[in-house]
Description:
about 400 residues, 16 helices, 13 strands, about 10% strand
Amino acid sequence: MTSTERTVTEDPTHSPPLAFPAPKAAGCPFDPPPAVDRAHAKAPLTRVTLWDDSSAWLITGHQHVREVLGDPRFSAEATRPGFPFLVAGVRELVRTMKPTFFRLDDPEHARLRRMLTPDFMTKKVQAMRPHIERLTEDLLDRMTDGRTTADLVSEFALPLPSVVICLLLGVPYEDHEFFQERSAALFSLEATAEEVRRSQEELIAYLAEIAEHKKREPDDSIISSLVARGELGVDEIAATGRLLLVAGHETSANMIALSTLALLRHPEQLERLRRDPSLTMGAVEELLRHLTIVHNGIPRVAAEDVTVGGHTIRAGEGVLCMVNTANRDEEVFPGGATLDIGRNARRHLAFGFGVHQCLGQGLARLEIEIALNALLRRLPDLRLAIPFEDVAFRHDMAIYGLGSLPVAW
């Protein structure tokens, strides 16, 4: 071991391990926790203590997050000893349920992901633009019909991606309350192990029934396509469908609502975008960077000893890749704490990095772009209907977002 390497038993900051997740800032709710920012300023790697008194490494810099997420020696398999869990419910879930490709390493990860890749390729996603635009206009028509106030989350930001992912999967949107409630339990940092288990089982049973129905009445949906391939069992198709359904609406819904709020909090940026809609695509990248709704890190576990940032991470030690602090790294994004829709933010890590990078990122970008364009065009007087201090941020969720967003126009 060289003089620049340290083992997990040594604290690179020479201070007690940070309890994680760390509390949010009392100031701007868009910013990473102050304790994490302070740790990042001191060292590229920081020891943290999790809820069950286990320890893990917090990776905070852009370079090192990319390094870890792109290195196959760091495993995404949650069944490996040492894999870091933020809550007991998810740990128990992993022990009892079949993993999806999201929690598998290559080659099995690649085999399963390839089955879905054609449905999320750029050409196919862009072909959905007219339909998503019509859906967006319809939602705004209903939201504004004879009214001047609404909850942007429940009436616009949530139903838009929910309808889209339902169409892709072949799931009836009429059941949205059922799967949205169970999705919330799966993402909750406060749900009990029993609540997580029950929500998972109910979603899997629901999607297995849909898969069985597709055997009898096939269509052009993703679930029907997986059934027709004949390579996966019904339970595997249901698990894959659950991952896409839950992630496909929660993430985009939160980004649409948070992006709207961030622009309302930065009226000069909002006005700049309103004057020049050609900036929208770049603005979406900057909002993804600035907001980064994964606030508690992307988990991995070392499959063998690896040196990162001058520190040796031993086999079996967990790491949490903090994409939100990486996306504020001053070495890559000067003035990173500031929202600037003119910034070239394409190097952000909001969708992860490496082979596990978000499969649906093209669809998410398209949904956010269309939603913001329509909101700014249709509602030139859009504003908050409550004080900013009263906005209901969801600090209790693994995917950061808003419980509601009352707006007026």
